[in-house]
Each structure stands twice: as structure tokens, then as C-alpha cells.
Predict the structure.
Amino acid sequence: MVYLGNAAFDGRMSHPLATFDPDDIHDSSTDVGLPGWAKTLVDRVREAAASGQTVTVTAEERMLTPEQMARRLGVHRSTIARKILAGEIRAVKVGNRHRVPYSEFQRYREDMLDRIARASAPDVETELFGDH
């Protein structure tokens, strides 16, 4: 039996994408044209099937630490920590540490860039076109 699924991020760390029963994996064709990472995946699935194991492929949302997010945004880690505590940045707890889903980092970065652009628009307009 092969199970294929597709789910949006719902706060869990991983989502099953496909589960393969060993009896379903009998294709021995060559993997010509596959990128290296795909060849590695196919090889590992075949090895597991050969030993009678069921294989489940999952996808995990990429998570950033507050420090990683701060470096990418050019701000201090404490700024990110304050915004997490204030609810401005959505984070999940992993043990006693915060992790920020990559999709939340992207949302916050776009919002931050939009705020910067709006705040600097009058200065840019004056610089380009002079005082009216």
C-alpha cells in the first residue's frame, strides 16, 4: 500500500508525505536523470524495503532560532525575543526554547520591509523630486 498526503503547516513538526510498504517497492530501473539527493533517497528506500521495513517520507517546516532570525534581519537577538513575547512573531516552544517557523520569518520580514518602505517614502520622494 502507498499512502500519499499533502498538508499545510498546522503547528506540528512533520507531515507524512508518503508511506511505502516493502511489497510495493520492486522497481529496479536505473535512476538516470535524478538529482543526487533524489538518488540518495531512492537508494535508502530500496535498502529499507529490502530489509522488510515500511518507509515513511515526511516534510518538516524549517525552523529558525531567535538568533538565526535576528542575524538574517540585522537586529539583536533580544529584539526578536521581545517580539516573540509580545506576540508580534509567532513561535513554537521546543523544550524551553523558542523556534520560529520559516514561514513566520518570511511573513515578518516582508512586513518589516513594507513598514520601512512606507516610513522612508516621503524622504525618497523628496530626494528624487525635490520639495513641491
Observations:
- The longest strand covers residues 14-20.
- Residues 1-12 have pLDDT under 50 and may be disordered.
